[in-house]
Amino acid sequence: MKKVNFRHSTSRQLLLSVAFLFSFTLFSFSQEGAAQDAPAQEQASAQSDDAGGAELGDPAAGKELFNSLCAACHKPYSESIGPALNGVTDRHDKEWIQTWISNSAAMVASGDPEAVEVYEEYNQTAMPAFPQLTESDVDNILAYVEQPKPEPQAAVAGAGGEAGGSGASGGVSVNVILGILVFVLAILLVVLFLVNKTLRNFASASGIALPEKPKRKPIWQSFVENQFLMVVSAVVVLLTVGYFAYGWMMQVGVDKGYQPIQPIHYSHRIHAGDNEIECKYCHSSARTSKHSGIPSLNVCMNCHKSISEVAPETATEEYSKEFYDKEIAKLYDAAGWDPATRTFSGDQKPVKWVRIHNLPDFAYFNHSQHVSVAGIQCQKCHGPIEEMEIVYQNAPLTMGWCINCHRETNIKIEGNEYYEKIHEELSKKYGVEELTAAQMGGLECGKCHY
After folding, report:
1. d(Cα 23, Cα 18) in Å, to the nearest integer?
2. Which CATH superfamily is domain 59-145 in?
3. Cα–Cα distance, 102 to 128 (Å, whole number)
4. Residues of the chain predicted below pLDDT 70
5. Residue 338, strand partner residues
6. What is the distance between the alpha carbons of residues 237 and 218, in angstroms, rounded to a whole number?
7. What is the model's pLDDT at position 319?
8. Pick from 288, 279, 289: which is nearest to 381 by CA?
9. What does the UniProt keyword field contain (predicted)?
């Protein structure tokens, strides 16, 4: 017995040592992480203080004024219809800038040499007058455009990745914890094995006979010999196989979640989400036609003649500013637009868009009936399109899905005399105040099938 107690006490000491090592490791890594985070926070605070001290006006207010009044012709860091505005205070006097913004045509007519030079350099394009802008408004605009060009988002993300990597290499807390847990479990298994072996040796030395387990009939043999269980099992297996086979076959042709890669990366998150462009501005056919239509490149160039690059804050960790700018360059190449000369070359190339939402040919669906007449929002069928970076099929678009929608959606009768009359008659028939599309005949086969 002394021998057994000695082994047990040794294992206990070993477990206590492992627990102490585990606690000490966690404590040291937490201290190291806190020490690494403190300098980073101090550096970020110092940078923000430096940036705030360098402001000459209110860049936030200047950004709003620039986007509403100037962005159609100017960009801060590159030329557009007019010159790039970053560095304008180095090229011209502030009073001259104020006068130019108030009435540039008058300065050109007066023969001001700087005004005439700018006017001739940019193809005699007249700049609209903005007499409503005060001196403080101009200062705010200048404060915005004179900010240093921000670093690309990809570089920031890369720096964050390096920081994360160094943190991981400096304190791989997760890996260390997992390693310690595995080590502790291994020690426990060894201790249990030694204890079991010691007890068996002790029983053998004391002449104690260990009972042997009686051999039983294998369970599979008992199962086979029971005919009732065999019949029930066969029925259950057949029903299960039939259920899953039916479910699998019903998914044929259902493309929910389909998300192809398009030839030009078009971000609905930026256009419909951040910029709040209405869906029907691009898909204008949805108002009057069966199909929503694919917008032509002319629709894209309505805006992108003046937008050759995205704002730095638009970039994400996955998609950098350089990536979006290259996609705009693909649009220019397809449309035959030369941003340097701001002219169309006439050499257009087709963009082979990949269709995502596609109904069978025997199913009839009219966008105008749902969008213009019923007033259904695009998100009802297409999901949160304003949040999608790459568009995917949100709904299954199956017959059952459409029928459920017709059963749950009430008819809007405001401003429609036909619906008002039939709504009154059918309401009496069904004894309801509001009619669903199903009660208006939305479940008839001929509504959706030719």
Report:
1. 9
2. Cytochrome c-like domain (1.10.760.10)
3. 9
4. 1-56, 151-172, 418
5. 343
6. 22
7. 95
8. 279
9. Heme, Iron, Membrane, Metal-binding, Signal, Transmembrane, Transmembrane helix
pLDDT at 26: 53
pLDDT of residue 324: 96
Task: State residue 149's pLDDT score.
Answer: 80
- 343, containing H or E segment: strand 343-344
How far from the centroid of its chain's Cα atoms is residue 82's Cα? 34
How far apart (Å, rounded) are the C-alpha atoms in residues 146 and 161? 30
Alpha-carbon Rg of the chain, whole angstroms?
37
Identify the pLDDT of residue 241.
Answer: 96
pLDDT at residue 119 in the model: 84
Query: Could you tell me the pTM of the whole model?
Result: 0.59
123-153 b/e with 16+ CB inside 10 Å = b? eeeebeebeebeeebbbbbbbbbbbeeeebb
Contact 261, 352 (CB under 8 A): no
| Tokens encoding 43 | 């550096």
Q: Check residue 33 and give its pLDDT.
A: 52
Instruction: Give domain limits for the chain.
Output: 2-54+155-195, 59-145, 268-438
